[in-house]
Amino acid sequence: MNTKKPKVRLWSVLTALTAILTIAAIVGNMIANQYATTLNVALNASTYKIIKGDTTEDTEYFKAGFTSDEEREAYEAELCATVEAEGAALLKNDNAALPLAGSAKVSLFGHGSVDLMYGGTGSGSVDTSKAPNLKEALEAQGIQVNQTLWDLYKSDSMMTNYSRVTPASISDTLEANTQYAVNEAPWSALSSAESSFAEYGDAAIVVFSRSGGEGADLPSGTNGTNDSWISGSEGSGNYLELSAEEIELLKNLKALKDNGTFKSIVVLINSSNALEMDFLNPAICGEDYGIDAAMWIGDVGQTGINGVGQLLAGTVTPSGSLVDTYLYDNLANPAMYNFYTQAYPNAAEYNLLTEGADVQGMYSVYQEGIYLGYRYFETRYEDVVMGTAKAGDYDWATTVAYPFGYGDSYTTFAYSNFNVTESDDAFTVTLKVTNTGKTYSGKETVQVYFQSPYTDYDKANGIEKAAAELCGFAKTDVLAPGASEDVTITVKKSELRTYDANNAKTYILDAGDYYFTAATDSHNAVNNILAAKGYTVAGTNGRMTEDGDTSLVWKWTNEALDATTYAASANGTAITNLFDESDPNKSSDAPGSVTWMSRSDWTGTVPTQPAALTANETLAADLAFTQYDGTEADSVEMPTLGAKNGLTLASMIGKDFDDPQWETLLDQLTFDEMVNTITLGFHNTAAAASIGKTATKDENGPQGLTAALTGGASAMCYTSEDVMAATFNVDLINEVGKCIGEDCLAMGYSGLYGPGINMHRTAYSGRNFEYYAEDPFVAGTICAAEVQGIQSKGVYVYLKHVALNDSETSRRGVNTWLNEQTAREIYLEVADKAITDGGAWCVMTGFNRWGATWCGANSNLLNGFLREELGMRGMCITDFSGSSQYMDLVDGLIAGSDIWDSPMPKIHTTKAANYENDAYIVTQMRNAMHHILYTVVNSNAMNGWSASDTLKTVLPWWQTAIYALIAVLAVLTVLCAWQLSKALKRKKELADTAPAVDQK
């Protein structure tokens, strides 16, 4: 008889364990399925299988331009360095401190010297772990670097104790802004390396770096009249002024220069956020730090520091031009008073949320109007010079350190033979540029500005005019000493138009005198125009900073006001007011009135405190998360769904957007396919088996393809967008675009979340590195060139963010208020140029609202402006929608949004099911699918597809693996339970047959 003791405890434990694991796997599968879109993108998991048809045609519609990854990577590394070399701007070069001698021995100072800013943080961040450093870049040019000092800065203790501090997470809050810190090493921490300085004393190169990133604006310090300004965690709280340790560093270097240890001091400004420049001017800061040379280098990208090395060594002569006005005190920018968001004082009364993912009660006012950057500083300067009434006490020379467009060189250039000719729709500017130096070859950036008359009509109708606006530019080839080049720049007449939002309610061309000038920067342009009007330094008692050159000015007179020529877009759409609801002085929400800044009364309109608005019942109602009430449900017929018409998406290759065959194709879609594509658009567009549509992959890319989520082959991180713009080189940035397209093609991406097209409203925006400039003309022109290059490889761009997402604080739902002239002439102009000139396919909308209406639910913006006026045919995607309720599905669809950047079905997908029988909403879904499919069919996603190919949906491998795991665990649970039951039965049998115990 078998008397072996049954293993009841063992099988009990194993049964319980396998049962728990089975339940956990089932629950895990349920959770994983909720995030299937994210997992498919992250794991590069396919959800379909292509069934090839019979075809012999070439289906590689977009071809790679490189034969190998190695060839592509090597070319792009050189290209990135070239962009930096052409974009970096030389600000100061006293005593010919630069370039350095080929055998120079230098010491590198500042934490930034060993920890450069290659790019910002957030969605635009990139992996630069293999990027060259400053030491390597200099040594490649034959310059010797102080190893002892380098090793000290790189030591574990220094890197631990003295590294930049940035916000720990993307939180969009005021509190996040305070977390930035410079945290520079004190001079005392360098004592162990001090004995090495003399040997490497040809130059002390100091690097001042500042970081920026998504979700947190930079702290600007405090101001007694404005409690909305944000103070950082160290010093005065102003992140963009030099810290106490940086000032201490400069003082000690000056002492060492004075005693002969160092021959010169060179400063590199490694930041896309403009530092305050007072430290470069002893008359402003009150102390001479002995700085001989300074160069702005922005964020350098993966190999851009090699370009900086070439500039410092003189292999390349600087030719970059600033794309922001650099100030002695950044708080002199009038936009600062309304930059950080603030809450409606009575937000709680109306239960308006002021934090979280669904902000309703925070607002920002663009009170400065069109006077962004140099448009303010130079316009007010002109009014002061001319003695205009109410210009006020304004001194350009103590306000502006370096004007927009400024950039010095190792050589000098002269302009001559300036001429302008007029045609029906353009002006042609020609001039000769000559390298008048004797030693260095170099390129020169020629900038053309115009001035529009500021008329009585303008003043009466609330129209504002800047003293100068950039309207054209060109860059010469490399000119040897004594060499010349004839430059031709075409200026469209439409650049002279201005928007009249109050009377004509369209674009007008004012009557009066217009001035054109070729200039080196915005200030030089205004001085030239002032000279043409008869003003001189002597004649203005020194109010004018420098006499202008009248030989570089041409005047054109428009005899009568024209309100018809530019009252329609290129496609014939009538242009009229679209954004009155974003103007607090016109909006039906009426949160209060705002006095816009005006050159007719600088002293009375330049802000001295934030604009004050108050919530009301109408505004609160318009801020509700869903506006659609279902009354349109039966206004249209239910579209056909699930038809078996036999078409595939590939059969639409080459078809126009309005081709009637699209209707036949769209009839094949099922409701679930539309919902899946529209609501789960996180980094992809979903496959649709009914029409043979492949899934596509999209990725972030303001500085180039990040591929942070999916990995893969190497992609180049280019310089920050401001450095690209600072090259003023359209052909060069078009080549950057082509190479970004090549990266996408090589790594299987069809869409790019970029370029970034918001404005540098102030120096403190967290994402200035993702955006081009303070000026919409250079931003739009450079963007259009980049877009053309990217899309030439079948990659559709999503211009982001359209529009007014110019700051990060409370960005998720912030109410943004501005007038229509400002919206059109400044903040929508980049998108205008990128779409009309660059052919951009798509846009990504912003987190923000226009007034009370979320960007993605603003029909006047998406349908009226983008699609009707500009003729955009591609799709509109939201910014990351996640579970945000205010980025409402039905309101967005009605207004023209097509796809939600969301991996989670909790909100949008679930909500879509409620509208399956609403013909109006289903029709909007169908329209959205038309935009999505038209974009995809014209992209590289169709490479390899012919009209005879079909698609079959399959489970992605990870789902198959989970199901297999569940099955295995379930079987194991059953087996363990069976063994447990056997053990229990055996235990009972043994108990029943056991001898009775004698109780005596």
From TrEMBL:
Keywords: Hydrolase, Membrane, Transmembrane, Transmembrane helix. The chain crosses the membrane at residues 957-978. Residues 580-601 are annotated as: Disordered. SMART domains: Fn3_like (SM01217). Residues 585-601 have a biased composition (Polar residues). One of its GO terms (biological process) is carbohydrate metabolic process. Coiled coil: none annotated. This is Glycosyl hydrolase family 3 N-terminal domain protein. It comes from Faecalibacterium cf. prausnitzii KLE1255.
